[in-house]
Amino acid sequence: RESRMDCVAVYENGTIAVREFRNLKQGDLVFTGRTENCEEGIFVYPNGFDGGEGGHDETFAFRQRRTRETAFSKDYDNIYELLKYEREHGYVVWVMGPACAFDSDSRDAFSRLVMNGYVDAPLAGNALATHDLEGAYLKTALGQNIYTQHTQPNGHYNHIDTINRVKFHGSIPAFVEKEGIDNGIIYSCVKKDVPFVLVGSIRDDGPLPEVYANVYEGQDAMRDCVRKATTVICMATTLHSIATGNMTPSFRVMPDGTIRQVYFYSVDVSEFAVNKLGDRGSLSAKSIVTNVQDFVVNVSKGLGL
């Protein structure tokens, strides 16, 4: 029920559990089949949710891979309808890189998504939260004005000043309250009580108090959200997208016993980044090659926000 990459299937108490290697214990009954046709216990079924929308099969055809020349109009329409459905029936996880916080319009647009119930859990690194809070606190991201993009005097100190101020207050919610923060992605999550998972990297400066410095603890926290996900949208973060894709199953068993597809989108201006998930084995990932700020604004407008 909770399959993911880079794990093993363990038989216990009459069920099959999918477990990371680091969590195996001596005596666990592990499926060790090497074939994919079930003769050794493992069956791979990649086309369970094939909607038959591929059109005619052709040996030679243009634009078979998704690139910047691909038409994404139908994808946008599908996302609008999907998010409207998921707001009432599903659990939407957004995986976000810091570029989402570098632009005034995209910050506002994503905040509206949060405030209107289209975001159940953002997953990100230290940078997304830091620069979003910097934008709310000092009106800059990495020292540049979030609207004009003009570099501010001594602006390169701003994200460090923001981190230090958050640490002074002890937590992000306390910082939001004590400093009178009233805008931004993280502010909206705090206000709407939307859980966010921030997992750090080896090069983080700071980081913020809520950031997981232990990657295993961070991975477990991310998976707690992914376990509930029915739609995942990854934006402008290659490593976090791959990590999330690796732990996201292609289907979800719902409380009433029905089985439904988990929708997975990867959005990035780089063709390499969006196609990387497919190369890593995430069969159900659909890629959209576009500027992530434009994507967020378009989704917000498409939902009438």
Commentary on this structure:
The protein is α/β, with parallel strands linked by helices. It contains 10 helices and 13 strands. It has helices at about 75-90, 105-115, 125-140, 160-170, 170-180, 185-190, 215-225, 240-245, 270-280, 290-300; strands spanning about 5-10, 15-20, 30, 90-95, 120-125, 140, 145, 195-200, 230-235, 250-255, 260, 265-270, 285-290. The strands form 4 sheets. It has a 6-stranded parallel beta sheet, sandwiched between helices. Strands 2-1-3 form a 3-stranded antiparallel beta sheet, with no helix packed on it. The two termini are about 35 Å apart. The relative contact order is 0.16.
Offer a few descriptive terms.
305 residues; three-stranded antiparallel β-sheet; 13 strands; alpha/beta; single chain
Query: The biggest beta sheet, please?
Result: 6 strands, parallel
Q: What's the N-to-C terminus distance?
A: 35 Å
* Principal-axes shape call: globular
What pattern of helices and strands is seen along the backbone? EEEHEHEHEEHHHEHEHEEEHEH
Average pLDDT across residues?
Answer: 90
Unreliable stretches: 59-63
Structural class: alpha/beta
Number of strands: 13
Number of separate helices: 10
Reading side by side through the largest sheet, how are the strands ordered? 8-5-4-9-12-13
**For the CA atoms, what is the radius of gyration?**
21 Å
